[in-house]
Design goal:
single chain, 29% strand, seven-stranded antiparallel sheet, alpha+beta, six-stranded antiparallel barrel, 19% helix
C-alpha cells in the first residue's frame, strides 16, 4: 500500500442540498483524482497561507467541479486548495519503477512510439557531448534519445537532445542556461556569475536558503529538460553513483524542488501513469500521451 495525495483547486463555491458545489480543477494525474467517499482534510490559499482543517467527503467529482459534504465548506473561497490522502494498492498504479531498459521500452509504448528495437538510431556523438558536460550520461536517456531525438512529452515537458533543431531543445546549451539559473539561487545575485560547479559550497549563501537539504557539497546537477512553465528537470549526480542510478529532480520556476525515486525513463513513465505524483507536473500529463517537437 502507498499514500496518494488528493487535491482540488477551487474557483467558486455554491451551497447545494448535498453540501457545496465547487467549480475548479482537480490536482495531479486523473488516476489520482478524488473519488466518491474520499476525504479532503486541509484547506489553504494557493500560496500556502491560511491553512485550516476541514472534514469534507466527496460526493462526486469531474474535471471541472466537485460536490462535497461535511464541515468547513462554508468557509471555502475562490483560490483555495483543498487536499487529502488515500491509501492505494501499488498494483493499481500502472508502470512501476522498472530497470532502466524495461522502463525505456515502457516509456516509448506509453507515448505511442515505434518500438526502440525497430529504430535505426540518431548516431549522436555521445563521447563529444559527454566531454562537454563532464560526465557519462545515463544509458536509458541515451537509448531513448538515440531512438527518438528531442521532443515534447504531452506538449509540456521538453526532452533535450544533442544538436536539436531548436535552441531550446539543444542539450548542452540548455544545461548551460539551467546551471546559471541554479547558481543564482544557490549563491544569490552577488556571487552567481561565473562557471563554478553548483556543488562548490564556497559560493552558496551562508544559510543555504535555496540549496535543497538533500544536495551535498560535491554533488552535481545536469539538466536534460524543462517545461513551458519554466520548470527545470535535472539528474542529481552524487559522487560514486552510477549514471543509471541518478535520480531525477525538478526545480519549479521559483525556489521549490521535487525529488523522484528513479531515473529518466522510469520517472517519465511513472509520471505519465500516475505512479509518481508531482505537484507541478502531474496535472499536465493526464493524456492523451504524445511525443513530438
Amino acid at each position: 500500500m502507498r499514500v496518494e495525495r488528493l487535491s482540488f483547486f477551487v474557483e467558486s463555491v455554491e451551497a447545494v442540498p448535498e453540501g457545496w458545489r465547487l467549480e475548479g480543477v482537480p490536482g495531479y494525474h486523473p488516476i489520482n483524482w478524488a473519488r466518491p467517499g474520499d476525504r479532503f482534510d486541509q484547506a489553504c490559499r494557493e500560496n500556502g497561507g491560511d491553512a485550516r482543517d476541514v472534514a469534507l467527503v466527496v460526493v462526486e467529482l469531474s474535471e471541472s467541479c466537485t460536490v462535497v459534504r461535511g464541515t468547513g465548506g462554508d468557509l471555502l473561497r475562490s483560490d483555495d486548495i483543498i487536499s487529502g490522502e488515500r491509501l492505494t494498492d501499488d498494483s493499481d498504479a500502472g508502470v512501476g519503477l522498472l530497470p532502466w531498459r524495461d522502463a525505456t521500452e515502457s516509456l516509448a509504448a506509453i507515448l505511442g512510439l515505434t518500438p526502440l528495437d525497430g529504430r535505426s538510431g540518431t548516431g549522436f556523438d555521445w563521447s563529444s557531448v559527454e566531454r562537454e558536460l563532464g560526465a557519462v550520461l545515463p544509458p536509458d536517456y541515451k537509448r531513448f534519445v538515440d531512438g527518438y531525438g528531442a521532443g515534447l512529452v504531452d506538449g509540456h515537458i521538453t526532452v533535450c537532445a544533442p544538436d536539436a533543431p531548436h535552441d531550446w531543445a539543444d542539450l548542452v546549451p540548455h544545461n548551460t542556461w539551467a546551471q546559471q539559473c541554479v547558481r543564482l539561487d544557490f549563491a544569490g545575485p552577488e556571487k552567481h556569475a561565473g562557471d563554478w560547479p553548483v556543488g562548490d559550497p564556497t559560493y552558496w549563501t551562508p544559510d543555504r536558503e535555496y540549496v535543497p537539504s538533500w544536495f551535498e557539497p560535491g554533488d552535481e546537477l545536469i539538466s536534460w529538460g524543462h517545461t513551458g512553465n519554466g520548470d527545470l528537470l535535472f539528474w542529481h549526480v552524487e559522487p560514486g553513483t552510477a549514471a543509471s542510478d541518478w535520480p531525477v529532480v525538478m526545480k519549479e520556476e521559483g525556489p521549490y524542488w521535487e525529488q523522484y525515486p528513479a531515473g529518466f525513463s522510469s520517472t517519465l513513465a511513472s509520471l505519465l501513469t500516475g505512479k509518481i505524483q508531482s505537484k507541478y507536473l502531474s496535472h499536465w500529463l493526464g493524456g492523451p500521451h504524445s511525443y513530438r517537437l
